[in-house]
Design a protein that fits this description.
Layout: E1 5-7, E2 12-15, E3 24-28, E4 31-33, E5 40-46, E6 57-62, E7 68-69, E8 81-83, E9 90-91, E10 104-108, E11 114-115, E12 126-131, E13 134-136, E14 149-152, E15 156-159, E16 172-176, E17 182-183, E18 194-199, E19 202-204, E20 217-220, E21 224-227, E22 240-244, E23 250-251, E24 262-267, E25 274-275, E26 287-289, H1 292-296, E27 307-309, E28 312-315, E29 318-321, E30 323-325, E31 328-331, E32 335-338, E33 343-344, E34 349-351, E35 354-358, E36 366-368, E37 374-375, H2 376-379, E38 383-395, E39 401-410, E40 415-416, E41 422-426, E42 435-439, E43 443-444, E44 451-455, E45 459-466, H3 473-476, E46 479-482, E47 485-488, E48 500-507, E49 524-533, E50 539-541, E51 543-546, H4 547-550, E52 554-556, E53 561-562, E54 568-572, E55 575-579
Parallel strand pairs: 2-5, 3-6, 5-7, 6-8, 7-9, 9-11, 10-12, 11-13, 12-14, 13-15, 15-17, 16-18, 17-19, 18-20, 19-21, 21-23, 22-24, 23-25, 24-26, 26-27, 31-34, 32-35, 38-51, 39-49, 44-50
Antiparallel strand pairs: 1-2, 4-5, 28-29, 28-33, 30-31, 34-43, 35-42, 36-41, 37-40, 38-39, 38-41, 44-45, 45-48, 46-47, 46-48, 52-53, 52-54, 54-55
Length: about 575
């Protein structure tokens, strides 16, 4: 077809250098055949500078199977349209740099891992961009002045420095998905026609929305971790109240300076975030916080003249305001506590009626961590609930722990404590429909992330509940409950949902590898349901058993191998033993 290819493997090629290509429309096929020997190759990529300065090139269609586009592949080409296939994982820097005739809509597929720096720099006739996945490099869409709308979908992981700087005509609402870990400096600087921004997570870089004067509302949701210096500087049409989520740890200098239409600030963080100089335009507007005394003693926050107790709480994307009745806080409505919703409240309160909604399994135990008490009568007949009882370590002949069992006991009476780790399993379940549990108590407790601890000679096992999503599970090396098993994350994308608990292991010994004794990462974790009823134990000591005794083969009197839950007379270690 007049296109040069370079052989990259036994059965693969990439589009090679085509500087002298004649023009018109280009179709990159899925396969090509070498005319010299009739051998067919899969086309897997477009190489560096493949169509560099592709004059008279009008369009390019890329078939599925192509996974990468190299640096400057279409630099300054005369393209008017491009089609990117599913399966594409990377676009190199400056790949479509200054292709200023590309017009209309561009869709980046969900398989994308990285969009390089300056990729679409100066593509000033693009009008709409949908990005379904990957990291967006610095200045990736810099000076795309024709852009009026962008859609960032779940799967986008980061937005680079100045990624959409000088895209001054992007208008309407912008939603930054929860998968984005960082918004780079000046990422949307000067996007003055944006009217609304929702940010669901990650860090917000310096000057990220600087001079976005069309903004009237911003929504910062649980998961946002930091707000950079001048992040919203001179966004002077943002009005009403500003909500700072509990996950924010720092707010940079001048972050909201010149936002002079704000009427109040509500901070859901129990620990005051580090506050930069002149972070806010005015310190005379009301500041509502979770702990008045803490904020009055904290640098920066103590400059506010009117600090009040925050009587709102957040559940998922919704915020609720509490009233006061009989010297107690209350919500004058029914409340459905939906599973996986983040929850932030600094106060206990009551509601008219409380319902817990969740999709349960009847095959495996699931983690349970909720801010209300559950009576045995609430779940009996429909669910099984178990309490964490103990850990049981099994050691080899060298004293190294090679297996650990989490021992749990069925709860057969009484009431589950709020803000306490449990396990739950349905008797019957519908995987596509949530089940509802009507809670007999109508009291909600504040969102405390409590822990229970089990300790052995060498290790401390800590179970901690959470009301917010936790990312980086692999990096933190937290252990969590999944499909009825205690698991470690195998990749950095694993996310633990809110209303769950996780397990962390701290070494108490001297031989430490990355915070853990060297045998911990190789340990197996099993769950064992004990026969008797649960008791209220908050801190317990791990039982240790030598492996040679605990997992020795056990046989019944018929010579069949059985496990240690078998009841009756068995042969164990060459002796008859009665197992009860």
């Amino acid at each position: 077809g007049g296109i040069n290819y370079e052989v990259t493997g036994e059965n693969t090629v990439e589009v090679g250098n085509n500087v002298s290509w004649g023009g018109g429309s280009v179709v990159i096929p899925a396969t090509v055949t070498n005319p010299n020997d009739n051998k067919t190759y899969n086309v897997t990529g477009i190489g560096k500078e493949a169509f560099y300065r592709g004059y008279r090139m009008t369009s390019v269609t890329i078939s599925e199977g192509v996974t990468y586009i190299g640096e400057r592949a279409f630099w300054d080409a005369d393209l008017t349209s491009i089609s990117l296939p599913e399966g594409l994982t990377s676009i190199g820097s400056q790949a479509f740099y200054d292709c200023d005739n590309i017009n209309g809509e561009l869709v980046i597929p969900s398989t994308m891992k990285s969009i390089g720096a300056n990729v679409f720099y100066g593509c000033e006739k693009l009008t709409s961009v949908t990005i379904k996945g990957g990291s967006i490099g610095e200045k990736a869409f810099y000076w795309c002045e024709g852009l009026t709308s962008i859609s960032l979908q779940e799967g986008v992981t980061s937005i680079g420095t100045q990624a959409f700087d000088y895209c001054t005509y992007i208008e309407g609402e912008l939603v930054i998905p929860s998968t984005v870990k960082s918004i780079g400096a000046n990422a949307f600087d000067g996007c003055r026609k944006l009217t609304s921004v929702t940010i669901k997570g990650g860090s917000i870089g310096d000057n990220a929305f600087n001079w976005c004067r069309g903004l009237t509302t911003i929504s910062l949701q649980e998961g946002v971790t930091s707000i950079g210096s001048q992040a919203f500087y001179c966004c002077d049409n943002i009005n009403g109240e500003l909500l700072i989520p509990s996950t924010v740890k720092s707010i940079g200098a001048n972050a909201f300076d010149e936002c002079d239409e704000l009427t109040s600030i509500k901070v859901f963080a129990f620990v005051p975030p580090v506050l930069g100089q002149n972070a806010f335009d005015s310190y005379n507007i009301p500041l509502y916080v979770m702990d008045v005394e803490k904020y009055k003693e904290c640098d920066g926050w103590k400059d506010f003249q009117n600090i009040k107790l925050l009587t709102d709480f957040r559940l998922g994307d919704q915020m609720y305001s509490l009233g006061e009745k009989d010297s107690g806080r209350y919500l004058d409505q029914d409340l459905t506590f939906n599973d996986k919703d983040s929850y932030v409240s600094g106060l206990d309160f009551t509601v008219n009626k409380l319902t817990y909604s969740r999709t349960f399994t009847n095959k495996n135990w699931q983690a349970l961590y909720v801010p209300f008490a559950m009576s045995y009568d609430d779940w009996v007949g429909e669910f099984d609930v178990a309490a964490i009882n103990n850990f049981h370590e099994y050691t080899d002949d060298m004293g190294q722990t090679v297996k650990t069992e989490l021992e749990i006991r069925m709860v057969k009476s009484g009431t589950l404590k709020p803000n306490h780790p449990y396990l739950i399993k349905a008797h019957s379940a519908n995987a596509t429909k949530a089940q509802e549990i009507n809670i007999s108590s109508n009291k909600m407790y504040k969102s405390e992330e409590n822990s229970i601890v089990c300790s052995s000679v060498d290790r401390k096992y800590t179970f901690t509940g959470t009301y917010r999503d936790i990312t980086g599970m692999r990096t933190k090396d937290y252990i969590f409950l999944s499909d009825g098993s205690l698991c470690r994350a195998t990749n950095d994308g694993v996310r633990l949902s809110a209303q769950r608990w996780y397990l962390s292991i701290e070494s108490l010994g001297s031989q430490v590898d990355g915070g853990y004794t060297s045998d911990v990462k190789a340990m197996e974790f099993d769950i064992k349901l004990l026969d008797d009823e649960a008791t209220d134990i908050d801190e317990i000591t791990v039982t240790r058993t030598p492996l040679r005794n605990s997992v020795e083969a056990i046989y019944n009197l018929n010579g069949m191998r059985v496990n240690d839950s078998y009841k009756g007379i068995v042969i164990k270690n060459g002796k008859k033993v009665l197992q009860k």
